[in-house]
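Dear support,

I submitted the protein below through the web form. The confirmation email said the job was done, but the results page showed an empty box. After a refresh the structure appeared. I'm attaching both so you can tell me whether what I see now is the final result or a partial one.
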Amino acid sequence: MTDIAERWWQALRRDRPDLALPEQYDLWYFGDSEDLARELLELVLAGTKTATAGLVWGADEAGTPKPGGYSLITDFDGTPRCVLQTMEVRVLPFDRVDAAFAHDEGEDDRSLASWREAHWSYFGRRCAELGREPTLDMPVFCERFRLVYPQPRG
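What the results page shows now:
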């Protein structure tokens, strides 16, 4: 955890006891570039994006999200921006992710076809970092979340 993130989290716990935030939280940003992190964060803050997917292979060291867990989401540069609570996590093969989940991710035209295209590219980059080849049956975690703080703008 960074000092800025920890101070932000503790201040939010102190100033907003109504949120009942726990001591423990995950710290991360969306995507793998500054532009993607900003774009996806804006979709969350607008209330459009209520789900995200990650490559299970890349989560081995940190583990996959757990229902009920909290995440402090930052900008690409590490500035805290919002708090999410994980509501549901399913692990599925890439080619078994459905249209409803793709829609809840809120990206592009929200279709399954565009989800598959964008995520195949993204997971391909992650696989390359891990020395693996992407496959249609590669395991992905499909996380649904709610925006806890701040309230959605949309």
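Response: this is the final, complete result; the empty box was a page-load delay. The longest strand covers residues 80-93.
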